[in-house]
Amino acid sequence: MDSVSLGMSLVEITWLNILLSGDNALVIALACRSLEGRQRRLGIVFGAGAAVALRIIFTIGVSYILKLPFLRAGGAILLLWVAVKLLLGEEPGEDGIEAQSSIMKAVWTIVMADIVMSLDNVLAIAAAAHGSQLLIILGLVISVPIVVAGSSLIVNVLNRLPLLIWAGAGFLGWVAGEMFVADETAMSYLPVEPPEWIIPTVCALLVLGLGWMLSRRHESEDHSVAG
Q1: pLDDT on residue 202
Q2: Domain containing residue 92
Q3: Number of domains comprising the chain
Q4: Are 73 and 186 in contact (CB under 8 A)?
Q5: What torsion, rounded to 10 degrees, do the Cα atoms 110, 115, 118, 123 define?
Q6: What is the rounded end-to-end Cα distance, in angstroms, of the chain?
Q7: What span, in angstroms and rounded, lies between the C-alpha atoms of 98 and 104?
Q8: % of the chain exceeding 70 in pLDDT
Q9: How many angstroms separate the CA atoms of 144 and 37, rounded?
Q10: 188 — phi, psi (to 5°)?
């Protein structure tokens, strides 16, 4: 590959990473929204680093990983759980130990979601790299500051407009539904093939419904304790 083709491929991969990192930035923002100041910045940076590292690993082994049956269906179920968990959120830590624990919980949640969402994204990146793992890694490294900046921006928006937290969680539910539909093995077990939008819509509504019920239960428990 000559230098011109190398440069063009690197630009293409970097651009793909920017386009495909929107859901990663959303997850990072949702997971870190309860953190404050330096803790939030650390959570965003660690979360973005974990997202890129996972995408590198998955891209290198994509030809083997995506052949596993029920992988996308299992990932869809995991992402539904992550979306509900992100919707409920957590209270900020009151001391250093609690704050550090919150960072670790936020990063772990980000990792769980990125394990799922990176599976499909790496297909486009691998195709653009034409088999060059160096190009894949360079493109991902370049995209890190963009993911960090996007996550910081989304956190600020979510704090000002809390209703968007529900919209973000619903979007993750939709993504989970799309992943399930993409699993041909799992879909083959359905008695009929539904329209493509049915399962993503049901998953989005499921996340919002579960989130609403669990948040109401938590509020009732808090009132009981306070009383």
Answers
A1: 96
A2: 3-226
A3: 1
A4: yes
A5: 170
A6: 71
A7: 10
A8: 74
A9: 20
A10: -65, -20
